[in-house]
Amino acid sequence: MTMVAFAYGFIWLAVFSYIFMVSRRLGRLTSEMDELRRRIDRLKP
Amino acid sequence: MPTMPNQTRATSPGFLVLCALTAALFMIACKAIADAPREIVMGVVQKIFYFHVPCAWLLMVSTLVCAGGSMAYLFGGSERGDRVAVAASELGVLFGLCVLVSGPLWAKAAWGVYWQWEARLTSSLLLWLMLVAYVLARRYGGASARKLAAALALFAAIDIPLVYFSVRFFRSIHPQTTVVSTLGPGMKGAFWLSLLAFTCLWGILFSVRVATESAYARLIDLEILLDQTEEKKP
Predict the structure, then answer these.
(1) Is the N or the C terminus of chain A less surrounded, counting Cβ atoms within 10 Å?
(2) CA within 13 Å, CB half, B131
(3) Is this prediction's ipTM beyond 0.90?
(4) For residues B223 and A40, what is the distance between their CA atoms, to the nearest angstrom?
(5) Which of A1, A3, A40 to mutate to test the interface with B (most CBs of B within 10 A)?
(6) What are the residues facing B43 on neighbouring strands?
(7) What residues pair up with B45 in beta bridges, in sequence order?
């Protein structure tokens, strides 16, 4: 039973860690987009 | 003229439906796995099978998608193909790691050892290492590593038939590919539900990663354009 719990636990941990990494990347993307918007706004006459 | 990336697929209704469907499928699959009868010889440890095999399936799917995208990039110059390959390679590494951890845990209980250098296990490890090499080359190799990584993805795809058929053509203690058809009634339903749930999860993660890569590519185009405009402005 320990092996089953460890295997299932590891798979869920790996999947959620990856989701966390992807969400962090999305966060960085959003902040870069905001910065770009600010730069575009500054260029507007 | 590149357009501003204003939204990802994460906000579309179809994507939210897929997320809800996947969550529901996982809940039903977990219940089915818990209710599935215990295998007579191996006992409860056989239940690793319900997560191990879908992960192995997704390792192969990811590698094939990565190779397809790489081929489109190498021979057709498709940027989208390249982004698809990057997304698929990461998922291949993720699900490959799950296979390579859950498999030895099952093996320890079933065979008495964590690892055997036999054809199925060795070729699976080789496949995973090639995907890891792809991801590392793309992350740290710069723009010049794109073609090298794409070629590596094609080599990884060549390993797939070897992984799949290794249990038929080589002497192996790993279960045969026909094991699914021999499952009992309660086991079969649990297995197919788990496979479907994992495949939907793969679809979600893949679409998010492709959308992120596409948004980054457009963002870089816009930044270059903006730099040029700022230089011209008096």
Answers:
(1) C
(2) 33
(3) no
(4) 10
(5) A3
(6) B39
(7) none
Place of tokens 């809800």: B20
Interatomic CA distance for residues B86 and B69, integer angstroms: 8
B:66-125 residues touching chain A, CB 8 A cutoff: 90, 94, 97-98, 101-102, 105-106, 108-109
Mean pLDDT, all residues of chain B: 87
Reference B131, options B61, B203, B205, B72; nearest CA is B61
- Say if residue B166's pLDDT is above 90: no
Coil, helix or strand at residue B39: strand
Summarised one tens digit per residue, pLDDT across range B89-138 is 999 999 999 999 998 888 888 888 888 888 888 999 999 999 999 999 99
Of B9-18, B46-55, B133-142, give the lowest mean pLDDT range.
B9-18
Chain B residues touching A1 at Cβ < 8 A: 44
* The overall pTM is greater than 0.90: no
Angle between helices B119-140 and B49-76 (to 10 degrees): 50
CA distance B229 to B55: 48
